[in-house]
Design a protein that fits this description.
Elements (H helix, E strand, L loop, with lengths): L7 H5 L5 E5 L5 E8 L2 E8 L7 E2 L12 E2 L6 E5 L8 E5 L6 E3 L9 E5 L6 E10 L2 E8 L5 E5 L7 E4 L5 E7 L5 E7 L2 E8 L8 E5 L5 E6 L7 E6 L5 E5 L6 E6 L6 E7 L3 E6 L1 H13 L4 E7 L5 E8 L2 E9 L4 E7 L12 E7 L5 E7 L13 E7 L13 H8 L3 E5 L9 H5 L8 H15 L3 E11 L1 H11 L7 E5 L5 H6 L9 H8 L5 H9 L14 E5 L8 H12 L5 E5 L9 H19 L16 E4 L1 H6 L7
Parallel strand pairs: 30-31, 30-32, 32-33, 34-35
Antiparallel strand pairs: 1-2, 2-3, 3-4, 5-6, 6-7, 7-8, 9-10, 10-11, 11-12, 13-14, 14-15, 15-16, 17-18, 18-19, 19-20, 21-22, 22-23, 24-25, 25-26, 26-27, 28-29, 29-31, 35-36
Keywords: Hydrolase
Pfam family, one: Peptidase_S9
Protein name: Acylaminoacyl-peptidase
Length: 645
């Protein structure tokens, strides 16, 4: 194996291909791949990937998700213009490649509700053009683009559910205490169905009906800790448990493509586990497990007759691979891979580890050591990067991680922790995070850092903290609340003031606002404002003593750029050194490959200075990036980032 560093470009430039799908009629493959450096839709006849051709030619904003219409006559995708999350829905004709904007309205965030095989030429979308806070439901004719109003959302409903005839059947609204109420819709009228307490709100939600529209599937943590899959008789209300796992929420469901009944269910504690298998698919899943040893896999797409599956497989040492599984022929054929160039390099395994918080909670975490480390511990403690996931209502999982591979390749131990509030581990684990932002949630991170030090994994004096969104907030906390633990902090699109965060959430998050207030603290009350101030890094700027690399997207609507602007200004007013980079054409994260490459090049040089790891020369990896250096230009020049921005 080569001793050279894995080039940043192989890890963070556009993938070669991903998001492979199959049309409902089984005739076409589709996937996303670059055209002149921008991610676009591609298409090929099923079984003939070598005949692939680009279907769209976007020149600026990449396409990152797509889906087929049920009649196999259109490909659909969402996109915004500059990261501002004013999202439009587009349709593409697979034959001619003509692209139509199906939602040509200013200042909207279009939402997908449902598309039905029983009404293949149409689907239901949500639009917030009437009131930016709430989405009305519209039936959209794919051939003509004509819209018909199905439900005017004057009742402040966060979600509206439909059956396969596109008839509204249920809805969900938020209550002032951060809980939720479910409604049945009968003859166009709302009727209270059941109340969902705050603790159950994240894990409990209706999914969709079976094909006969007689039974509703639902995830529910009501009367249990972990979310189970329920099947509810819509006429009688009788419930049955399809599957439940004692230690984790239901995480993935394989549906029968004809009946829309659950054929298999997966959950994940340390790794994903298909723990419920119907006889109809048991042999198929066993075949895939035998053909893909060591891989995590999921069925990403199914043909209408359920004969053809698109399987997405990955493992820590291999990025996403997409395969065509013919269930009848028992053949498994690779369609495309996201990053095949990584085959030339020695990638590192990921190790699930379980620690304990100081008050006894189990903290499922993932550790990646440099590939040169033979066992589960290095010969001597390594510099370590703590990578904190966003959300906070999300989770880290086992599998391929480009950031883990990159940092481990540079000689660092890499640790990701599922702190309290992370989802997937039951409602009690989420409830343990109430009002604990900047407190016990941060303590969980510190406890796992202490574990890594005690285990001889991490060098106590060389631990960096990095993350985006909530992970960015955690990085700011590391610099202001616990500067003695971390030698540097790298917040990306991070939060510095919890009150301004909650006061400036996007209007279409209105249906989630009360839950956030209950979780963080209520900015409308004196007690809530006091709590939010106590947990906000902006009020502890004087405690910053370690180097910081701060980055933000100018158009971020979730965590506005002012969150970083204000703390940088406060640091500069106090004469505290800081490096600050803003991307004028990005939002809540870095979407454009030139910006990603530039960021990781700067980050790599920054970490090399403060942790002492290996560093690839910058080379051409700043070219084409929009980044603006708003503070710390001299420091970056000292890192070899010359003429950057």
């Amino acid at each position: 194996m080569p001793d050279a560093l894995i080039p940043r470009r192989i890890l963070f430039d556009n993938p070669v291909a991903f998001d492979a799908r199959i049309s409902p009629d089984g005739a076409w493959y589709s996937w996303i791949a670059p055209v002149d450096g921008v991610l676009n839709l591609w298409i090929a006849p099923c079984g003939h990937i070598d005949e692939g051709r680009p279907l769209t030619r976007q020149t600026v904003r990449p396409i990152t998700w797509h889906s087929w219409s049920n009649d196999s006559r259109h490909l659909l995708y969402f996109n915004d213009r500059n990261g501002d999350e004013n999202i439009h829905l587009y349709a593409v004709d697979p034959a001619g490649g003509a692209v139509r904007d199906l939602t040509p309205l200013d200042g909207i965030a279009a939402r997908w509700f449902i598309g039905s095989p029983d009404r293949p030429g149409e689907f239901v979308i949500g639009l917030n053009d009437r009131d930016p806070r709430w989405h009305d439901a519209w039936r959209l004719d794919l051939a003509t683009g004509e819209r018909t109003l199905l439900w005017e959302n004057t009742q402040n409903l966060g979600t509206i559910g439909f059956d396969w005839t596109h008839r509204p059947r249920w809805a969900r609204s938020e209550t002032p205490d951060g809980a939720s109420r479910l409604w049945r819709i009968e003859d166009g009228e709302l009727h209270p169905w059941r109340d969902i307490g705050y603790e159950d709100s994240l894990a409990t939600r209706p999914l969709f009906f079976n094909r006969a529209n007689t039974h509703l599937h639902m995830l529910s943590s009501l009367d249990r800790d972990t979310a189970a899959l329920l099947r509810i008789d819509w006429a009688s209300g009788e419930e049955s448990v399809v599957a439940e796992h004692p230690d984790a929420d239901v995480a993935d469901i394989l549906w029968d493509a004809g009946t829309f009944e659950a054929n298999a269910v997966a959950a994940e504690v340390l790794k994903a586990e298909w723990f419920h298998r119907a006889p109809a698919v048991a042999a198929d899943l066993a075949h895939l497990e035998g053909a893909l040893p060591g891989f995590e896999f999921a069925v990403a797409e199914q043909s209408r007759d359920d004969r053809h599956w698109i399987v997405m497989a990955h493992r820590p040492e291999q990025a996403a691979t997409y395969l065509h599984f013919d269930r009848e022929a028992r053949s498994l054929v690779e369609i495309c891979r996201a990053r095949p160039a990584l085959d030339a390099y020695h990638l590192a395994p990921m190790r699930p580890v379980e620690g304990r918080s100081r008050d006894g909670l189990q903290l499922v975490s993932y550790l990646t050591l440099p590939a040169s480390v033979a066992g589960d511990r290095p010969e001597r403690p390594l510099p370590m990067v703590l990578v904190v996931h966003g959300g906070p209502w999300g989770r880290d999982a086992y599998g391929y991680r480009g950031d883990h591979q990159f940092l481990a390749d540079r000689g660092y131990a890499v640790l990701s922790v599922n702190y309290r509030g992370s989802t997937g581990f039951g409602k009690a684990f989420v409830a343990a995070s109430i009002h604990e932002h900047g407190a016990k949630m941060h303590d969980d991170l510190l406890d796992m850092v202490a574990w890594a030090v005690a285990e001889g994994i991490a060098d106590r004096d060389k631990v960096a903290i990095f993350g985006a969104s909530y992970g960015g907030y955690a990085s700011f906390l590391g610099a202001t609340f616990t500067p003695e633990v971390f030698c540097c902090a790298l917040p990306l699109v991070g939060i510095t003031n919890l009150q301004t965060l909650l006061e400036s959430i996007p209007p279409y998050w209105a249906g989630f606002a009360e839950f956030m207030y209950r979780s963080y603290g209520d900015p409308r009350t004196e007690e809530g404002r006091r709590l939010l101030a106590e947990r906000s890094p902006i009020h502890r700027v004087d405690a910053i003593t370690k180097p910081m690399l701060i980055a933000h997207g100018q158009n971020d609507v979730r965590c506005k750029v002012a969150e970083s602007d204000t703390i940088v200004a406060a640091m500069q007013a106090r004469g505290i050194p800081v490096t600050y980079i803003v991307y004028p054409d990005e939002g809540h994260g870095l979407t454009l490959p030139a910006n990603r490459l530039a960021y990781w090049a700067i980050m790599e040089a920054f970490l090399a200075r403060h942790l002492g790891g290996a560093c690839e020369p910058v080379g051409h990896d700043l070219e084409g990036s929009s980044h603006e250096i708003r503070a710390g230009r001299e420091d970056l020049a000292g890192l070899g980032i010359v003429g950057a921005g």
